[in-house]
Amino acid sequence: MPEQLLWAERxxxxxxxxxxxxxxxGPDGRWLTVAPGTPCPEHAARLPGPALPGLIxxxxxxxxxxxxxxAERRDSAHDDFxxxxxxxxxxxxxxxxxxxxxxxxxxxxxxxxGGYTQVCEFHYLQHDGxxxxxxxxxxxxxxLADAAADAGIGLTLLPVLYERAxxxxxxxxxxxxxxxxxAADVLALQRQVNDARxxxxxxxxxxxxxxxxxxxxxxxxxxxxGDHPVHVHVAEQTAEVDDCLRSTGCRxxxxxxxxxxxxxxxxxxxxxHSTSDEIxxxxxxxxxxxxxxxxxxxxxxxxxxxxxxxxxxxxxxxxxxSQVIRAWPEELRWLEYxxxxxxxxxxVAAAPGLEGASAARLFERALVGGAAAAGQRRWGLEPxxxxxxxxxxxxxxxxxxxxxxxxxxxxxxxxxARPFARVMVAGSWIQxxxxxxxxxxxxxxxxxxxxxxxx
Length: 455
Ligand SMILES: [Zn+2]
Known about the structure:
36% of the residues lie in helices and 18% in strands. By secondary structure, it is an alpha/beta fold. β16 and β17 form a beta hairpin. The structure holds zinc ion (ZN). Zinc ion is lined by residues 59, 61, 122, 233, 269, 321.
C-alpha cells in the first residue's frame, strides 16, 4: 500500500479535538505521523468531517446476533439471565460454520457502522452440534476470521476454556457439548490462529468463568498465553457471586486477585458486582475491566460501580456481548445513563477540573482500555497505531449546528442514528455495506429459525 496523506479540519488526538491535523499512513497500514496545526498540503485528501479513532469492541459473542429481538417475551413467571441462557443455547446447538460466518459478517459490518474497528471474540462454540470435534478443530475460529475479513474489521480471537457446568459439577451439561475444551485445547487453538498470520487477526485466550473452569486449568491457560490478553467472565450475576463464595470462600474478583496473579493481560468481563477492596486489588494488579451496558441492562445483571472503577484508574473498555446494541455511542450513553438513574445525578463519569465532559472521559478510557483488551500496543490517532478512523457525519440531523467543542458529547448523548460517514481500517476505507451482508444473514436466520420445534 502506498503512503497516503489525509487532512482533517479537526481530529481527536491526545484526548481532545485538535485543529488542522495532517495524518500520514505508512505502507504497513499504520500511522506514520499525526501532526496537528498543519495547513492542508495540496496532495492530501481532505476528510469530509471531523475524525475520531475507531473504538475496540472488547467483548462479543457473534452467534448471539441470531437471537437479538427474539427473547423479549416472558412465557413463565420467572425470567432472568439463566432462563435467557437456556434459550440462547438452542441457537448455539444448531448453528453451522457457514451460518456463523454469514451472521458474524453482517454483525461485523454493523459494528463498523457503529464505530468499532476491532472486535474481541470470546469464542466458545468449538465443536459440531453433536459435540464432536471438527476435522480441523479451529473450523469455527476460521468461520469468525472469514467473517471479519468479509466485513473488513480487525479481530482478536479468544478461544475459551470451558470445562464444567458449575463450581461443584464435574462436567458440562449435555446442552453445553459444543463448548468442551481443556487448557491444552485452548492453547493449541490460540497458537493455530496466531500462526496462521491472517491480516488484521490477533489472538488471546479466555476462561469462560470461575464456575466453568478448574483452578489448575485456569492457571495453565494464563501461563501458556504469553503476553496475549486473557479474558474471563467474572461477576455478572449475584447468584454466581454467591456460588463462588460458597465453593471457594471468596467472591469471584477477590478469588482472581488472590490466586490468578492479575496483571495487565487480564480483562475482567462483567465486573458488575464488586467491593471497594476488589476494585483496589484489580487496580494494584493492572488488570482491566470490560463493561457491556446494553447486554447487562437487557439481562437484568445489575450496574457496575462505574465511579469506583474510574476513580481507581482501572483500564476500562466496553463490549457489545449479546449484540443488543451494536454502536459504541449508544453503549457509552447507557453506561452513563445507568449511573444517572441509580444515583439520581448527572454527568457521573465526568471528573470536574480534569475532564468535565462525560463523553470525552468515557471515550478516552474505552480507547485505552480497549487496546489492552485486544492486545494492541498502540491505538488511536498516534504514530505506530493502526490507521483506523471514523469520519463524523455533521449532516446527521442530531449533529447539525452543534459547536465543534461539543461534537463528541452530541455523538454520545444526542442519539444520532448513523453518526459516521466513513470508516477506515488499516489505511483502507471500508467498502462493505449492509446490503452486501444482509442476504447471507437473512438466509442463515431463515435456516436457523425454520427448524420445527426450535422456536
Ligand atoms: Zn459474554
